[in-house]
Amino acid sequence: MRDPPWHALRQPFFQLVRGLGEFDDGVLATQARLMQDEIAGDQGGTNAAFFSLFDLEPPADLKSWSRIADPVAARSLLLKVLNGPTASAFVAAKALATHPAAQRTAQLIEEALPFLCRESVLRATWALLSLVTEPETTALTLAKSPQAGIREAVARIVPTTDKGRRNALAELFAHDPNRHVRLAAVERARQSEPSQELFAFLDSIAQAPDPAFACHRCGTENSALSDSCSSCRIVTNRPSKEAADLVESLRKGVST
Ligand SMILES: [Zn+2]
Fold first, then answer.
1. How far is the CA of 229 from the centre of ligand 1 (A)?
2. pTM above 0.70, yes or no
3. Considering only 40-44, 175-179, 184-188, which range has the smallest mean pLDDT?
């Protein structure tokens, strides 16, 4: 549910992003005009002109809060946009992560988390962990949330090993009753430096019985033995297999 409607937030949100990123109005207007012309002439409808914008310059930092007249009102707006379309929610989270009142902003994001859709929870959790002074402590608290979407977000963002040693998250995620949380932890392990403790973490998932799962796309409940949804066929792999496969490929990488 989007309340108030997204179209009412768009204009103030774009203006806020323009201020935070110190974008030049003249340049923006010219880029928009050129892009509209190119899209109008693009018979194939490829949207290539639109995507070419992202190749022009590196992503802007959204941190010029000194240019914003009312940072409190701006923060309220950004918190609402977290429930908007995915790309805008991503930008809103990026802006929230640099808010000068870090502690209060983190608190408000944490309060908003249970009411956000899954993709927004991921972005908002990332912003929250960027703002707090002790991200390990906050991550551990969130990893015990009754809401699987919040645990999944933490598992996707925070590694289960720290300087090669398993941390407190490893034990929680290896035995999480939700399949998506375990899969997120395996996915995060893919980016970690291989270590004996990382292998031990993955082995504990590989050897544990897989949980049943609710499909992320359509919500259908599926059995523990399935690796795709019985309704929409979208694949949700078994964590035990994903973890075993990752151990095998990482061990090969280490031995070669
Ligand atoms: Zn499904």
1. 5
2. yes
3. 40-44
